[in-house]
Amino acid sequence: MSMSFQNLSIVAMRALQRNKMRTALTCLGIIIGVFAVILLAGISNSLKVSVREKIQSFGTNALTMMAVKKPFTEADLKDIRRTIPDVQYITPMNSWEFPVKYKSKNIQRQIFGVSNEYFMMGNWELESGSFFSPQEITSYEKVAIIGHSIKKLLFEDEDPLGKVILINRIPFRIVGCLQEKGMSLAGRDFDDFIVGPYSTLSMKLFGTQSFFVINVATYSETQVDTVRQELLDLLQRKYSLTPEQMQDYKITSSKEVIKKTEEISSYLALASVAIAFISLIVGGIGIMNIMLASVSERTHEIGIRMAIGAKTRDILMQFLIEALIISAFGGVSGIFLGVLVYGMYTAVASQPFIFSLSTVVVSFMFSALVGVGFGFYPAWKASSLNPIDALRHE
Asked: How far is CA 108 from CA 105, 180, 339, 375, in A?
């Protein structure tokens, strides 16, 4: 009479428990393979979401100009606007972290200095108040616009319009409140936001009338590459820059960031597949070796079981279950370790934690398949033993 699956599982578990250390070491290859897949797939997903956040902020027709040494000036803004007609929006950007105070409430926040076109680029809309007037920008007025989260944090139920906050001990009057945008895919709060006119912040907070970042938006995505080249040509002509000096200016587009991220994601995917394949093959070979050794050690035991009525199918199933338990334990351990390390990575790198159930399921199923595949030969060998020869084995 054949044994039930439950009884075979109990027998298999007892056999594995007799050699706990050997069983754990056999799982190691499976653990490493599954761990690598979970970790690298998670990092790849985080990078993709971070890029989508950038696109969500400025769109695919955005360019960012960065000066490494010599900063940009107001004259550069005017020259770009005058000579490159495909530029729809342009805004300088300075930012620095400062203490912010309103009455008894004190917070520390990144303060951004921009022009009104920054709001056009990011599709910002006002909940109340107004954007900066030309007079406020040219006269270096100490005014600020705040996001919804700052409004709730500092003012609660008060109307913030006309109220004065202290930024680095300098009074700024609130002239506008932005509509709520919510959380980004990466967990960033878009509404935790304080901006002032770039002219005012440059003079009053940053101590300079220049800036190291200019954001540009074209009318369409098809114009991005052309405008990028025109910006580089403008800088080269205006300042008579050598090729070496041109390296001090970086212009990146959303398209480039997307392309680079996709390349990195592809490399990570290939790396995870390669590492998983090698590790799981090594783990499978380990399972086969340990099962063959187990068959050799337990030949007499197998003979006794056959003599008292165990069928060939029972022996085959028992050893297959042992292989499956080893691979399943390795798969679960690898998944747990991979998710843990991936969570630590996202916390340290300020990246979004993207849990992929499909990756977990596929990794576990593949590890189980490896266990059964590599465990079949030892199981078949055990079930093929001649009961009389097995009983004679010492």
From this structure: 10, 21, 32, 59
